Amino acid sequence: MTDRADPVDVRLRRWTDADLAILEAGNSPEMTRHLGGPESTAEVRRRHERYLRGWDLGMPRMFAAVSTAGRPLGSVGWWESTFQERDVYELGWLVLPAAQGRGAATAMTRLAVADAIAQGDGRDLMACPSVDNAASNGVCRAAGFTLVETSTETFRGVEMTLNFWVRPGVSR
Fold this sequence. Notes:
Helix content: 25-40%
Number of domains: 1
Shape: globular
CATH class: Alpha Beta
Radius of gyration: 15 Å
């Protein structure tokens, strides 16, 4: 049996330089099949640098998701975006294979939602997984998002059909 994380065994911590390994592990063809395929090594490094800078600049707020024992489970975060001509916070996540299928993605997404509500300005939250990504669409449903639209968009140079899920923000 593989060592998988229970959903209650998930915590978020600020993204650090040590977390580049999470992005590298998540950059395989299997892990990126719903994202248009792997990025180049340089693109992964640039993404990592954006995650690090985000904490100094205020956006994006990216987290490493880890077990209470400190094992990496993946990443999750939120950033400013636009949906239907209004400002929203977009959420995204990556769950490493050893943590998949046990509710870790839902737990880490719920924690990121709570952070966006606590730290944000009350705008709605949005996530847009591929229509073919049943697991991520299930995470959206379980984390309190409502499916509002399906449309075809270009992401990383690849045309993809995406589900757009929205969750109301909470004004502070």
